[in-house]
C-alpha cells in the first residue's frame, strides 16, 4: 500500500479519469447477427439447389442481356414520359383554373386506383374497344385514320401503361416538391419582375428538387421493378426472358437469381446516382456539404 | 407636368369579409423618404404590397412615376394588365421583405444579378459586375460567393437591399426590414438605408424604428385600422401628434 500511494498522486490531487459506459448487449447483438450472416453465406455456397454454375452460365447470356436492354428501355422511357406527364399534372393541380384542377385530381385518383397489371391488359386489348383511331376535329371530320392494332404494339401498350401509371405518382411527387418551397420565394421572384417561366425554372424548381429527388428515386426504383409486370403482355424483358429459359430447362431458382441480381445491380447504380444528384441540389441548403464516401476513403488512406 | 413619384388614391382592400384598407391616400415626392408607422394589423404591409401589385386593390389607384400600376384605364374602367406587363412594372419598384426572401440555392452575387439578367436581359458578366459594385455599397464585397445560410440576418438583409437596387428602381419599398433581426444587427441595416436616403433614393419604409423615422424621414404617416390617421414631417407627427391614437401608439413604442 505504501508503494502505491508513493508512486501515484492521491485521488484528491488530480482530475478523475473518464471511463466510458460499457454496452455488453451490443456485443451480444453483434455476435448473434454475425452467426446468422455466416449461416446464410454458408447456405448460399454449400446448398446445391442454388446451382451457381447455371447462374454463371446465364448471367451474361445474350438473350438475358437483350432482355435487360428491353427492361432498361421501358424504365427510361417510362420515367421520362411519366415525369413529363407528372409535371403537367402538378401544374394543372396547382392552377387556379377549377377545370384543370379537377381533371388532374380525377386522373390521379383513377390511375392510382387501377392496378398496373389490369391497366396493361386494357391497353393491350384497345383494339377490341376501338378498331380504328381517327385524328381530326373533335366530333367532326377526321384527317387520318389508323388501325389500332398497328398503332399500339404490345411494346407500345406496355410503355403507355407504365407511363400513364407513373405520371399519376410523379404528379404527386412534383406537387409535393413545389408546395414545399416557401411562398416568399415566389413573391420575391415576382417582386423582382422575373418572368413566370424563369421563376419556375431558376427559383422554384431547384428548391423543389430537394423534396422531389428522394421520392422520385424511390419511384424510379419501383418502376424498374414494375417493368417485370409487363411479362403479361409477352414482352421480352428481363423477368419474361428468365421465365422462358427456366420453362425450357426447369432450372427455376438459378434463373430467378439471374433476374434478381440484375435488378439489385441496377438499383445500386440508381442509388449511387441519387446520392450525387441530391448532393448537387443541396448547395446552399447546408452550410457545408459533408464529404462523399470516396473523399472520406481517400482522406483515411492518405492520413 | 410634374408628378409625385408615388401617388396612392382611395385604395380599398379587403380579405374575405375583413376590410383592411379603407381608402388610403398617400403621396411621396421624388427623392423623399416616407416612413409608415402603425400598430400591427393596421394595414401597413398590405398597403406596401398593393403598391407593386403583389396584392390587387379592390378600388382606388396606385401610380408610380405617373404610371398606373396593375391596370390600364379606358373610360371609367380599369382593365387588369397581363402578368408580363405587371412584371415589367415591378422591375421599376424595389421591394425589401421582412424575412429577406433571398434565394437560398444562389450565392449572394447570383441573388443580386438574377433580376437584371432575367428582367432586363443584361449579359451575365455585366450583371455580375454591377452586383459586385452593389455588394461593395452595402459593405459585403467579401461575401460575393457566400450562400444566404452562411450569412447573419443583418448581412442577409443587406444583400436583399442590394438585390432590390440591382434594377435601378425608381422607388424602393421596405416592409419591416429590421423586424426579423436580432437587436444588435438592426444598426447595420439602418445604416445602409440611411446611406440610400442621402443619395436621393425614393423610399417608402414600413417600420417600428422611431429613431430612423425621426432622422431620415421627410414624411411620417401614421396608419391605424386601415386609415391614415395623420401625416406630416417627423417633428410634427412624432413630437406633437394631433390625434389621440397616434399619441397612444407612440407612448407604447417609445417606452
Helix/strand layout:
The complex is a heterodimer of chains A (303) and B (255).
Chain A: H1 2-7, H2 24-46, H3 52-59, H4 62-94, H5 98-113, H6 116-124, H7 126-129, E1 132-136, E2 142-147, H8 148-151, H9 154-179, H10 183-191, H11 196-226, H12 238-249, H13 252-281, H14 293-302
Antiparallel strand pairs in A: 1-2
Helix pairs in contact in A: 3-13, 4-5, 4-9, 4-12, 5-9, 6-9, 9-11, 10-11, 11-13, 12-13
Chain B: E1 6-15, E2 18-28, E3 33-37, H1 44-51, E4 59-64, E5 67-68, E6 71-74, E7 77-80, H2 83-90, E8 93-96, H3 108-119, H4 124-137, H5 153-165, E9 171-175, H6 183-198, E10 202-206, H7 210-216, E11 219-224, E12 227-232, H8 234-239, H9 244-253
Helix pairs in contact in B: 3-4, 3-5, 4-5, 5-6
Organism (chain A): Winogradskya humida
Domain ABC transmembrane type-1 (chain A): 68-274
InterPro entries (chain A): AA_ABC_transptr_permease_3TM, ArtM/GltK/GlnP/TcyL/YhdX-like, MetI-like, MetI-like_sf
Features:
heterodimer, A: about 300 residues, mainly alpha, MetI-like fold, two-stranded antiparallel sheet, 14 helices, about 5% strand, B: about 260 residues, alpha/beta, six-stranded mixed beta sheet, four-stranded antiparallel beta sheet, 12 strands
The share of residues in helices of chain B is: 25-40%
Largest interface: A-B, 24 and 32 residues
Assembly state of the chains shown = heterodimer
Treating each run of at least 4 consecutive H or I residues as one helix, how many helices of chain B?
A: 9
**What is the total tally of β strands of chain A?**
2
Average pLDDT, all residues of chain B? 93
Please tell me the CATH architecture of one domain in chain A by its name: Orthogonal Bundle
Assign an overall shape of chain A: flat
Q: In what order do the strands lie side by side in the largest sheet of chain B?
A: 8-9-10-3-11-12
Largest sheet of chain B: 6 strands, mixed
Enter the CATH topology name of one domain in chain A. MetI-like fold
Low-confidence stretches of chain A: none
Amino acid at each position: 500500500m505504501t508503494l502505491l500511494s508513493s508512486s501515484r498522486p492521491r485521488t484528491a490531487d488530480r482530475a478523475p479519469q473518464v471511463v466510458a459506459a460499457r454496452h455488453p448487449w451490443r456485443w451480444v447483438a453483434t455476435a448473434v447477427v454475425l452467426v446468422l450472416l455466416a449461416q446464410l453465406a454458408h447456405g448460399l455456397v454449400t446448398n446445391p439447389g442454388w446451382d451457381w454454375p447455371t447462374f454463371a452460365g446465364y448471367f451474361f447470356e445474350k438473350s438475358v442481356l437483350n432482355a435487360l436492354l428491353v427492361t432498361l428501355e421501358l424504365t427510361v422511357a417510362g420515367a421520362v414520359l411519366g415525369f413529363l406527364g407528372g409535371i403537367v399534372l402538378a401544374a394543372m393541380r396547382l392552377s387556379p383554373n377549377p377545370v384543370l384542377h379537377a381533371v388532374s385530381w380525377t386522373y390521379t385518383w383513377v390511375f392510382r386506383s387501377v392496378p398496373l397489371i389490369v391497366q396493361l391488359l386494357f391497353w393491350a386489348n384497345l383494339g377490341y374497344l376501338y378498331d380504328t383511331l381517327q385524328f381530326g376535329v373533335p366530333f367532326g371530320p377526321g384527317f387520318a385514320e389508323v388501325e389500332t392494332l398497328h398503332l399500339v404494339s404490345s411494346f407500345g401498350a406496355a410503355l403507355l401503361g407504365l407511363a400513364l401509371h407513373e405520371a399519376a405518382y410523379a404528379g404527386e411527387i412534383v406537387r409535393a416538391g413545389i408546395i414545399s418551397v416557401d411562398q416568399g420565394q415566389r413573391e420575391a421572384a415576382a417582386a423582382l419582375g422575373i418572368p413566370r417561366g424563369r421563376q419556375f425554372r431558376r427559383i422554384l424548381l431547384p428548391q423543389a428538387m430537394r423534396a422531389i429527388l428522394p421520392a422520385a428515386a424511390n419511384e424510379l426504383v419501383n418502376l424498374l421493378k414494375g417493368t417485370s409486370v409487363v411479362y403479361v403482355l409477352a414482352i421480352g424483358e428481363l423477368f419474361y426472358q428468365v421465365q422462358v429459359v427456366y420453362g425450357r430447362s426447369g432450372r427455376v431458382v438459378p434463373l430467378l437469381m439471374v433476374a434478381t441480381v440484375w435488378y439489385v445491380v441496377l438499383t445500386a447504380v440508381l442509388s449511387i446516382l441519387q446520392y450525387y444528384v441530391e448532393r448537387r441540389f443541396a448547395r446552399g441548403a447546408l452550410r457545408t456539404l459533408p464529404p462523399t464516401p470516396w473523399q472520406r476513403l481517400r482522406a483515411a488512406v492518405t492520413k | 407636368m410634374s408628378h409625385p413619384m408615388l401617388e396612392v388614391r382611395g385604395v380599398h382592400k379587403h380579405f374575405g369579409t375583413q376590410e383592411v384598407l379603407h381608402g388610403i391616400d398617400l403621396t411621396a415626392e421624388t427623392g423623399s423618404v416616407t416612413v409608415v408607422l402603425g400598430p400591427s394589423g393596421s394595414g401597413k404591409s398590405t398597403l406596401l404590397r398593393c403598391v407593386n401589385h403583389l396584392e390587387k386593390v379592390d378600388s382606388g389607384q396606385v401610380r408610380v412615376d405617373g404610371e398606373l400600376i396593375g391596370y390600364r384605364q379606358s373610360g371609367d374602367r380599369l382593365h387588369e394588365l397581363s402578368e408580363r406587363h405587371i412584371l415589367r412594372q415591378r422591375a421599376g419598384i424595389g421591394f425589401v421583405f421582412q424575412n429577406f426572401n433571398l434565394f437560398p440555392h444562389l450565392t449572394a452575387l447570383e441573388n443580386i444579378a438574377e433580376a437584371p439578367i432575367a428582367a432586363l436581359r443584361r449579359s451575365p458578366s455585366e450583371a455580375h459586375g454591377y452586383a459586385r459594385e452593389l455588394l461593395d455599397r452595402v459593405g459585403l464585397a467579401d461575401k460575393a460567393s457566400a450562400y444566404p445560410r452562411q450569412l447573419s440576418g443583418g448581412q442577409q438583409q443587406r444583400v436583399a437591399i442590394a438585390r432590390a437596387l440591382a434594377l435601378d428602381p425608381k422607388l424602393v419599398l421596405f416592409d419591416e426590414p429590421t423586424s426579423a433581426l436580432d437587436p444588435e444587427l438592426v444598426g447595420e441595416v439602418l445604416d445602409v438605408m440611411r446611406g440610400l436616403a442621402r443619395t436621393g433614393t425614393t423610399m417608402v419604409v414600413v417600420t417600428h424604428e422611431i429613431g430612423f423615422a425621426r432622422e431620415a424621414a421627410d414624411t411620417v404617416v401614421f396608419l391605424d385600422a386601415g386609415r391614415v390617421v395623420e401625416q406630416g414631417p417627423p417633428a410634427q407627427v412624432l413630437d406633437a401628434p394631433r390625434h389621440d391614437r397616434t399619441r397612444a401608439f407612440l407612448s407604447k413604442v417609445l417606452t
